[in-house]
């Protein structure tokens, strides 16, 4: 890329920074954008019309806030096939939920199995737990990001308490066989935590059928809610510790954190507008049909990959079969730094993507891109074929200019 | 109260539950409501126009999200007199921030001093820490909720690592002499954490002048932001542990949580719309003038207390001097259960208050209301004299009917 283009880019960013930005947004794996209008409306309705504290005061506005939260629990319970909505717990984000799940389960001397395709939201808590004597085995995946079930089985020890994996890689989109992993966990009396950050809202997840003990989801990705809300579903009867104590609006006379769900894990004022927005997001998915959204995203992913394959200089990572692939496509152009490509896509072509390591360092070691990173394009429910065509065109022009 | 009124109340709640509710809202100590219009607009603007992930991808929308977050840090740093905005950390809510502060500081064998007026957001984490060998001294306050500085000094032991207190009680409004407590902490080389849940946004807080090591604030109370955001300000150089690790968008190549602030304590996607709303809330406070808001709330509190004093059957708790009193007024009517009074206020008079223990059990033991609870009226920046007059009238009618 010439210096001229970089300067052009800088000029462009200055000229447009505070304006009403219209871009081709292909960063849905970070946060889906835009949201359905109903989501904006639900957040606003919550703030304007019942902006009180749920589960505390008992007056009409507080009850109404409590009601939308309960209704959202019900919707999520149905969505993931959970009997009791009280086993749905809301948190700040998926990272908060993963910390609760992982630290709530593991004790000194326990062994945990995870994979080399995980996000730092799993790897960093496990690293921190090393200090209290938790042992971790990281199962190496192949260069497309696939995990081998036998490698998991071989890693099991007498003190293995937990298996924790993603449902799909945030780098390559590679989908893990979570039902089979759940089966292995169940047969060996091991707890299984699934990080559904890249799949909840697009792929069918049935926690019972898949033997998932704890399912973690972000609100702001494919469930189409706003940022600031995430959560987890905890299997009935599974005992985990709280990691955040405080006021719950229940058993207020006691200094001891209540043991009942969801209160045990929901201290302090919850994000009611965020939960109301999440409700609207999930309703949108149900109305449009999760299968229709999945087909839409898979179709565009397939088309994008097929067009990318025609460009010789482009290297595509991960399994190129959309059946094994969440709508996340990581590429590189020759040996170019991924950040530079992303910079040009943004500033010259108004295409928003994410470059670099994507908070998943071992995944990049696994696929061989630890130094270069990758340029990640992630497709959402509002991405269009025109967006993909323009993106392909931009990539071709960049390839020509290098 | 007659059964007839209770039935009337139930009928009323059914008839109005989903309607456009207009009530006299006196539950601002739980969540301020309504918010300034600018807050609603800022949340919507964030979601609609730059709903991307801050600090990650680097494209225009992500940069804009990152910018509003940084600007909010700057505003908060200025508001509480902190030099470096990077020492302002965002969390889910104040409870999340208190857990981080308390657990980030204390180790097995440490001693901590707190008061009997604290919220469960302090008492329950301390109770949980007993299990790892943290010792707690709870300083008893007088029946108005005042703390005696000498009692704090007398409680100091060689292993006292921390003093943690509220700035003002959420039950009686009693204001603590935090500057003096900070002085004691400093002289004895003890860390001081202040829970400003009831004061941030109404009372001047200068962390340097007051010797506060960690200041915890909720976003959704007097700072006028939405629910789902809180935070803490950490004194430069103070080392505390992370309690939530994960992706930070920084040092992504490393499995170890980065040590720099604020990233060390901000794993996962933040609540950008919530932070944008908080920015607008603080801007509103600065524009209207924190002193003007305080005078408004103090004036109404003073008026409310003076009118309450004329009703013989009403018992008012806490110091009735508004100079020693956040705009929170707890009362009881004779021996009536606080929940019943609140129920009638809501359902017959459309006045929203909070009854019960308010997640502060020891405060109620201190003021002698552990069984009865109190009816808490909390005034906000949009409360009017007319609201107070109607509330006084309602209380008089209830007193007459009992």
List the topology elements:
The structure is a homodimer of 402-residue chains.
Chain A: H1 3-16, E1 24-25, H2 37-49, H3 60-80, E2 88-91, H4 94-105, E3 111-115, H5 120-129, E4 135-139, H6 149-155, E5 160-166, H7 178-187, E6 191-195, E7 214-218, E8 230-234, H8 272-288, H9 290-308, E9 314-316, E10 328-333, H10 338-347, E11 351-352, H11 361-367, E12 375-378, H12 385-401
Parallel strand pairs in A: 1-11, 3-4, 3-5, 5-6, 6-7
Antiparallel strand pairs in A: 2-8, 7-8, 9-10, 10-12
Helix pairs in contact in A: 1-10, 2-8, 3-8, 4-5, 8-9, 9-12
Considering the chains and any ligands shown, give keywords for the structure.
homodimer; 402 residues; alpha/beta; Aspartate Aminotransferase, domain 1; Aspartate Aminotransferase, domain 2; three-stranded antiparallel β-sheet; 12 helices; 39% helix; globular; disordered N terminus
Oligomer: homodimer
**Name of the level-1 CATH class of the largest domain in chain A:** Alpha Beta
Broad shape of chain A: globular
Order of helices and strands of chain A: HEHHEHEHEHEHEEEHHEEHEHEH
Low-confidence stretches of chain A: 1-20
- Work out the largest interface and the residue count of each chain: A-B, 99 and 99 residues
Q: Round the Cα radius of gyration of chain A to an integer and report it.
A: 22 Å
Q: Quote the average pLDDT of chain A.
A: 94
The CATH superfamily of the largest domain in chain A is identified as Type I PLP-dependent aspartate aminotransferase-like (Major domain)
Helix content of chain A: 25-40%
Strand content of chain A: 5-15%
Would you identify the CATH architecture of the largest domain in chain A?
3-Layer(aba) Sandwich
What strand order characterises the main sheet of chain A? 2-8-7-6-5-3-4
The end-to-end distance of chain A, rounded to whole angstroms, is 5 Å
Largest sheet of chain A: 7 strands, mixed
Report the structural category of chain A. alpha/beta
Number of helices of chain A: 12
Please tally the β strands of chain A and state the result: 12
Q: And the CATH topology of the largest domain in chain A?
A: Aspartate Aminotransferase, domain 2
The number of distinct structural domains of chain A comes to: 2
